[in-house]
Specification:
It contains two helices and six strands, in the order ααββββββ. The chain is of the alpha+beta class. It has a domain of about 90 residues.
Length: about 140
């Protein structure tokens, strides 16, 4: 009986010592920043547009030029460069029918582009369409 009492009063069961319980320590792990759906959409929009322009420009002959056109209302503009000042706004540096340079700004889902291949007046003066990708500012 004394042996049983000693076993019951001892800190372990049957003479085995139990380890003390403690809260496990979490590893020092930082979650990577995940871009928002809007940032991803803006990036993919510009990458797709730029890839389309590059593909069309690569197929040009020496005397040809690619003209990118955007309609705003009833007016047609030649797009000189494209940038995205925010995650869903597209800013277009354009030339209007009179030859004046103007800025056209709109939501990326409401802007439509057309492309035309024309004969260049001076082949050596071909001007590529410029792009400013999101987050490059």
């Amino acid at each position: 009986m004394d042996e049983l009492r000693k076993m019951l009063e001892s800190p372990g069961i049957g003479g085995l010592q139990m380890p003390e319980l403690s809260t496990p320590k979490m590893p020092n792990f930082k979650m990577p920043a995940i871009p928002s759906i809007w940032e991803t959409q803006a990036k993919l929009f510009m990458e797709g547009l730029k890839a389309q322009v590059e593909q069309l420009e690569a197929s040009l002959k020496a005397d040809q030029e690619l003209v990118m056109i955007c309609w705003h209302g009833h007016e047609k503009f030649q797009v000189l460069s494209v940038s995205m000042p925010s995650k869903n706004v597209v800013a277009l540096n354009c030339r209007d029918a009179e030859g004046d340079v103007t800025q056209v700004t709109g939501h990326m889902n409401s802007v439509t582009f057309s492309f035309r291949i024309v004969t260049a007046k001076e082949p050596s003066k071909r001007r590529p369409i410029g792009f400013e990708m999101p987050g490059s500012q």
